[in-house]
Amino acid sequence: MTEDVRSAPGVDARGAVARAAPDVETLRASLDAVGYLTDTGLCTALFLALRLPQPLLLEGEPGVGKTEAAKALAAVLDTPLIRLQCYDGLDVAEALYEWNYPRQLLAIRLAESQGTPLAEADLFSDAFLLRRPILAALTHPGPAPAVLLIDEIDRADDDFEAFLLEVLAEAAVTIPERGTVRATVAPVIVLTSNRTRDLHDALKRRCVYHWIDYPDVERVAEILRRRVPDSPRVLASGVAAAVRRLRLPELQKAPGIAEGIDWIRALSLLGVERVDAAAADRTLGLLVKYREDQDLVRARGLDWLVGEGDD
Asked: Distance between CA atoms of 178 and 120, rounded to whole angstroms?
């Protein structure tokens, strides 16, 4: 049995996407308008994922904007972002669907007390189905497709990665009690990976792939200004430069753009207009989250961190 999830009559999902992203430059401008800055390579990958359509696999170090890319796409399409956060031990039930067993049991007891026949199909109807992120994305009615963010897929295990192949290739899943659920408004699927492990070739073959490099200081400063618009320009530049200095291989956890945003918000709240060693000393915990890393930074000197004394 195949259960096709139909969009509303007259809805043209491809048309909705084409109107939102007719070409790379228009998409880039739209992403810019919602506060997400891209370079040509990343914007082209996002465009192809939308228009081919094909799942998009974004890899890169933590904090370079992989998750934000999916959020920005959802904002541009004016459609829901449905997020599945991966972790070790994630199983299909948590990602796809579960049956509401307590409610099924109540239905059985009620039918028995009333002497009403209850078919097995009745127990596995929509009334008892709990849609988890993947099924919710597949059954989204449109008009624009939902954006399904499968975040940090490298944290999930091999079995879950194998389960995703049907979803990525066919925008469909198989539910034993219902058959195959196949979406006609296929979601835009964005997978992210911090590359804590290598993903299988079978998954990569189904995706547009893009590696996001950490942006240069000027672009980070512009991102910070977009996210914290009331911050002084000189403060944004100083924060961006300091975060860049902290991206050292010897640190257990180098800060990314997300930490930079947290830091500039804190500095702005404290009334700091320019990054200096004293401000860094008070707020280092916003950037560096391991004691050993803080010791290493302090050993280098907070003047080094904020660029004091640079020519």
From this structure: 11
CA distances from 109 to 114, 121, 125 (A): 9, 16, 17
Count Cα atoms within 13 angstroms, Cβ side, for 135.
Answer: 20
**Look-up: residue for tokens 């972002």?**
81
CA 271 to chain centre: 32
Helix (H) or strand (E) segment spanning residue 191: strand 188-193
Q: What is the pLDDT of residues 203-224, one digit of tens each?
A: 999 999 999 998 999 999 999 9
Q: Please write the tens of the pLDDT for every residue from 121-164.
A: 667 667 777 889 999 999 998 889 999 999 999 999 988 998 89
Concatenate the DSSP letters of all residues of 153-189 into one string. Answer: GGGS-HHHHHHHHHHHHHSEEEETTTEEEEESSPPEE
How do the residues of the chain divide into helix, strand and coil, expressed in percent and rounded to 5?
50, 15, 35
- Please give the model's pTM, rounded to 2 decimal places: 0.84
